[in-house]
Amino acid sequence: MKPRLRRTVAVVFSFALVVTACSAGGSTTTTAAAPQASSTTAAPTTTVPGSDAVSNLQDVRDAVVRIVAEGSFVDPVEGLVSNSAGSGSGFIIDPSGVAVTNNHVVTGAAILRVYVEGDDEPHNARVLGVSECSDLAVIQIDGDGDFPYLAWFDGPITAGLDIYAAGFPLGDPEYTLTEGIVSKEKASGESSWSSIDSVLEHTAQILPGNSGGPLVTDDGRVVGINYAAIGDLDIQYAISRDEADKVVDQLRAGTDVTSIGVNGEAFTNGDLSGIWVAAVESGSPADRLGITGGDVITKMEGLELATDGTMADYCDILRSNGPDEPMSVEIVRFDTQEVLEGTLNGDGGLQLAFSFADELGSDVADTGTTYTYTEVRDDDGILVMQVPTTWTDIDGRGWEFDGEIVGNTIVAAPNLTDFYGTWTTPGVFFGASAVLTERYAPGGLLDVYDFSGECTLDGRYPYEDPVYSGDYTLWTNCGGTDTLFVVIEAYPPSGDFVALVQIQVVTDADLDALDTILASFDVDLG
Fold first, then answer.
1. In this structure, are strands 404-413 and 393-395 parallel, antiparallel, or unpaired?
2. Domain limits for position 330
3. Under 8 Å CB-to-CB from 184, ≥6 apart: which residues?
4. Is residue 44 part of a domain?
5. Residue 389: DSSP 8-state
6. Residue-wise burial string across 401-437, b where 16 or more C-beta atoms lie within 10 A, e elsewhere
7. What is the pTM assigned to this prediction?
8. Could you give the dihedral angle defined by the CA atoms of residues 413, 414, 417 and 423, in that order, rounded to the nearest 10 degrees?
């Protein structure tokens, strides 16, 4: 069946901390749990001579900020969440107010409000540069300068190193510091929201809202940037200083790195995989092309994305192409049930990947009319599709085939008797059957539905959408008219059932109806 993202994808946007673990059984997403908070432990004060940066653990709080990002995001469960505010953390690295945080905390937000220790009112901030694949961002905080700031740790980062996680978990305005050690120097950095060669694994507890906050030593030096946790296992992850060092200077200078300007996450559910887009940065390549929140980027440069549930392939493509080079993309847009394609950094916007209306528009009569659409279901509520509102004669009874019921159907037309008996009335038949998959090999039903006695066979062609694949036959000049008849036999990846769609096209408006039906027909097995 076509993907029901609200049931199959657990995507945590902007401010939650998640880890995706891929196993032989597929990908699973675990949200950080909320175990008992670790106690704050005061470390010895160690002064670092010759530096104006914070030099002791007690003063780290002066340079750690709470970031409230306000905007509209599209969640696969909740849909559009307008004017929402989520909270993350960050830390200042320059007295002018330059700060580091996570990409997923800030990208796509309309307003950034930054709370600095000791100030009564929040500061506005703007994004200087982001890296989707490293999940890093650099922002500029408004102000007069002379902000307290943190410096990077300059020693070796080894397992057993004492560290502290600083930030504002769960959106609480109260500063929090937790203690632990580096437990693994090079843990896997492949996940559903970033693609990093390796990350630090540590034991200083972090929770949603700690994203973007620093992992520091007892002298206040930054070892890494916190971004994820598996609460049940008491495992935390931070982007290491060495990874940040590769990109922070570029981000600070206003250059995005391995980024097209989306706040998103990879997912796969067996039927569909791709990068779910929660929000888009204004003016970015994604924005210029027309990608918007709620889209799923399924292909880039012809390669299917996120088949393993991670950002690895997506980020490898970004790394293999310059930031201004054209890159082809394919988009699934659930709002309109369309498959779109276009070129990042290219000319033009998104276009329908395939449209019968475009391909066959000159073969049928142009009446100048257009349809509006409504959703219809069969009597059992299992089959669903969008049909023209004028196709009000609807039959949702079972699929009768050779005298027995083999599945579910829904048939819609302005008049079903005329649809069945003439070639001058448009309409659609949509059926789904598990029984028929045992009786016919793929393509067999197309042989059964042979209209060569009344139509001319234009050909048999492959059919594919983001979920179904199979073949279709195109019949022309049916009954000596300009009517086209399209018969599609297609299967979901599981092969559990066969879907048969037959559409009678009389005018150009019916070609638009054909495109809409093919974008919306679904088998909802609950």
1. antiparallel
2. 262-356
3. 159, 200, 201
4. no
5. T
6. beeeebbbbbbbbeebebbeeebebbbbbbbbbeebb
7. 0.71
8. -80
DSSP letters spanning 28-75? EEEE----PPPPP-PPPP---TT--S--SGGGHHHHEEEEEEEEEEEE
For the beta carbon of residue 232, count every other beta carbon within 10 angstroms.
11
Query: 198 and 112 share a domain?
Result: yes
Q: Distances from the Cα of 341 to the Cαs of 8, 333, 380, 520, in angstroms? A: 25, 11, 35, 18
Task: Give the span between the Cα atoms of 164 and 210, in whole angstroms.
Answer: 12
Rounded alpha-carbon distances, angstroms, from residue 172 to 41, 62, 139: 19, 16, 21
Distance separating alpha carbons of residues 361 and 472, to the nearest angstrom: 18
Domain finish residue from 252, 272, 301? 252
β-sheet bridge partners, residue 398 = 408
Report, in angstroms and rounded to the nearest whole number, the Rg of the chain calculated over CA atoms.
28
Q: Where are the beta strands (DSSP E) in 345-397?
A: 351-352, 373-377, 383-388, 393-395
Looking at the 3D structure of the chain, how many domains does it have? 3
In whole angstroms, give the CA distance from residue 391 to residue 488. Answer: 20
CB 404 within 8 A of CB 386: no
Q: Can you tell me the distance from the alpha carbon of 291 to that of 328, in angstroms, rounded to the nearest whole number?
A: 13
Residue 178's DSSP bridge partners are 165
Question: Based on the domain organization, do 122 and 173 belong to the same domain?
Answer: yes
Identity of the amino acid at 220: G
Residue spans of the chain under pLDDT 50 = 1-50
pLDDT digits (tens, 9 = 90+) for 53-110: 999 999 999 999 999 999 888 877 677 777 777 899 999 999 999 999 999 999 999 9
